Amino acid sequence: MLLLTLMACVQDSFNWCMVYQVSRLFSIIRMKASRLDELLESEIFGEKLEEIVRMQDVAYRSAKQLKKVLSPLLLLLYGTCVVSLCMTMMVLTIARGDRQLLTNMIILVWYIFFQIFSYSMLGTELMNASTSVADAVYRICWYKRRIAEQRLLLIVMMRSQRGASLTATDFFIVNRASFGMALRSAFSYFTVLRQFYASK
Predict the structure, then answer these.
(1) Which pTM was predicted?
(2) How far apart (Å, rounded) are the C-alpha atoms in residues 148 and 151?
(3) Whole-number Å distance between alpha carbons of 116 and 129
(4) Residue 83 — pLDDT band, cuts 50, 70, 90?
(5) What's the 3-state SS for the chain?
(6) pLDDT tens-digit readout, 108-159
(7) 152-166 burial, b if ≥16 CB within 10 A, otherwise e?
């Protein structure tokens, strides 16, 4: 059991690091884009802009792969969190004397709760980092640049307005709002179960 828990923690840490690194890549792109106006020579500006386009392409491909790999896991985690939280509240209501069962349920819910909270915060950070590139490009004096450079700036801006995100198999986007949604759902199901139990 200890080995299984350790493996799950290592896997979660790896996933969190991957999402964090992709969001940092978007932050690097934003910093590079915000410094483009400092480049006065047109050739150097063009080279740096092409580098930003390539980096943005890599960042979006990485985010797409993460989304594809993590989507089923995130759906499972959110579903497990809602069910576990609902069942733990029912256990608190019904079996107040069984401390061992209560302790096990609380530990399980705490772990799943922490996982969902972490993915929600990282999902929000990824979205914010990917869309912040558009703000940096918007502040560039594009009207002073050549037509080809203006087109590249437009491409970077249009891409970054899409925003990269984590989803739970396209049912919903994983962010802070979805975290609150999971808690509200669990409480709603608990209320229905408690009323059903009280009516028996």
Answers:
(1) 0.81
(2) 5
(3) 20
(4) confident
(5) CHHHHHHHHHHHHHHHHHHHHHHHHHHHHHHHHHCHHHCCCHHHHHHHHHHHHHHHHHHHHHHHHHHHHHHHHHHHHHHHHHHHHHHHHHHHHHCCCCHHHHHHHHHHHHHHHHHHHHHHHHHHHHHHHHHHHHHHHHCCCHHHCCHHHHHHHHHHHHHHHHCCCCECCCCCECCHHHHHHHHHHHHHHHHHHHHHHHHC
(6) 778 878 888 888 899 999 999 999 988 888 888 878 888 888 888 888 888 8
(7) bbeebbebbeebbbb
Residue pair 150/173 in contact (Cβ under 8 Å)? The answer is no
Question: 110, 102 in Cβ contact below 8 A?
Answer: no
Measure the CA–CA gap between 45 and 41, rounded to whole angstroms.
6
The structure tokens listed for 196 are 């059903």
Cβ count within 10 A of residue 77 = 19
The size of the chain, in residues, is: 200
One-letter amino acid for residue 50 of the chain: E
HEC assignment per residue over 43-79: HHHHHHHHHHHHHHHHHHHHHHHHHHHHHHHHHHHHH
Both tokens assigned to 84: 């576990």
Q: 7-35 pLDDT, tens per residue?
A: 878 888 898 899 999 999 999 999 998 88
Provide the 3-class DSSP secondary structure of residue 185.
helix
Residue 144 DSSP label: G
